[in-house]
Structures are given as C-alpha cells and as structure tokens.
Here is the input.
Amino acid sequence: MEEKNEAKKSEPNVHVFGEEVYSGKNRKGCCGSHQNHDYNGCCRRGDPGVGVAILFAGIILLLNTLGVIPWEIWNYIWVFWPALLILAGIKILLGHAPGAGALLFLASLAVYGFIIIYGLIHVQSSLLGGLPAGLINFVQNFNLNFNN
Here is the structure.
C-alpha cells in the first residue's frame, strides 16, 4: 500500500505563479486546457501553412509600403488563390500524422515562394538577381493564360 502512495506522490506537479500548470494526472501544462491536445496528448500548435502565408503577405505589404515592390505585384499573386485550396486539402489529408506539420511547412514555402518569384518577374525582376538562373527560368517559363 505504501508503494502506491509513493507512486502518486512522485507524479510531477508544476506550479507557475501559484497556479498549477501541469499535473501527472492531466495534460493541462502547455496550453491550459484538455481540448487543445491531439490524440497523443501533445499540444496542438498553429497551422504552419497559415503562418507562412501571413509571413509572406506581411513581407510583401511591408515592401509595398516602403516602395521596394510596386503594388501591381498583387495582380500576379492573386491569380494563384487556388493554391490556398490545395494547401488546405493537403493539411486535411495529412491530419495529425507524424511529420505533417513539417511537410505542410515545406510545401507552403515552395508554393508561396514560387508565387512571389512569379510576381516579381513580372513587376520588378531586378530584385531576383541573387536567385539561381535555373529557378528563375523555370518560373519564367511557367505560362498562364489570363485570357480565359
């Protein structure tokens, strides 16, 4: 009987500023509720695809505001709105599989990077001087028919 009591006492309890944030009995520690945990008991984090989209949009808006990139770039970027649907579909298909977040992050970087390079080629290609010529040629040769 004493062994069971000792086992219960050895469960870690973490208190921050007097509030219990983790107990061996629950998984409340990292985010404050049981509802924010996945099936493994780990905290769910934000969506990496959305994070990358917000990051790229913020960078482009900042460069627009500073006059580095003309506002016309949005005409070329907006054409690729279906890419957002594709990334959302990938996220749904992968779910919480191991490595899904990393794969979605890399896919988002590739897609958004392609879109931005495509836009920059059409509005201000001088900013692309440091990129490999093969990458620029690939994006440049990607033809879109805007007349449909």
Residues 100-123 form the longest helix (24 residues). The first strand starts at residue 13 and ends at 16. The chain has two domains: 2-36, 48-140. The two ends are 78 Å apart (CA to CA).
